[in-house]
UniProtKB/TrEMBL annotation:
Highest taxon of the lineage: Bacteria
InterPro entries the UniProt entry points to: Di-Nase_FeMo-co_biosynth, DiNase_FeMo-co_biosyn_sf
Gene3D superfamilies: Dinitrogenase iron-molybdenum cofactor biosynthesis domain
Pfam families: Nitro_FeMo-Co
Protein name: Dinitrogenase iron-molybdenum cofactor biosynthesis domain-containing protein
Residue ranges constituting the Dinitrogenase iron-molybdenum cofactor biosynthesis domain according to the UniProt record: 13-103
Length: 107
C-alpha cells in the first residue's frame, strides 16, 4: 500500500497539514519497501480545481490512501471515484512520525 500524507514541511516531525490541496509537501510511504519519500506539491497554488490536480498527481504515484486534515468536496469526490481511501487524523497535532508508527507498529 502506498500512502500520501499532507505535510507542512518535509520532515518526520512535521504535523499533518489541514488542507489536502494546499499543503506544501506530501510524504509518500511505501508499505512494501517501508520507505518514505517527499514530494513537493507543485499544484498548491493552482487557481482552479486544485484538489483534483493534486489528487491526479498522487494517483500517478500509485497512491491508494491519503491522510490530510480535510478534503474539499471536488477532491473528495474525485478520490472516492478513484477508490482512494481518505483518512483524517483525530488529533490536529498528529505528525508524520505518529502516522508511520500506526501503519508499521513494529518500528
Amino acid at each position: 500500500m502506498i500512502i500520501a500524507i499532507a505535510l507542512h514541511n518535509n520532515t518526520l516531525n512535521s504535523p499533518v497539514h489541514l488542507q489536502f490541496g494546499r499543503c506544501p509537501f506530501f510524504a509518500i510511504y511505501n508499505g512494501e519497501s517501508d520507505k518514505v519519500t517527499y514530494l513537493e506539491n507543485t499544484e498548491k497554488d493552482s487557481l482552479k480545481d486544485t484538489g483534483i490536480a493534486v489528487a491526479s498527481m498522487l494517483l500517478s504515484k500509485a497512491v491508494s490512501a491519503v491522510v490530510a486534515g480535510r478534503f474539499g468536496v471536488k477532491a473528495a469526490d474525485y478520490l472516492r471515484e478513484k477508490q482512494v481511501q481518505m483518512i483524517i487524523p483525530h488529533r490536529k497535532d498528529t505528525t508524520l512520525a505518529d502516522i508511520l508508527k500506526k501503519v508499521n507498529p513494529h518500528k
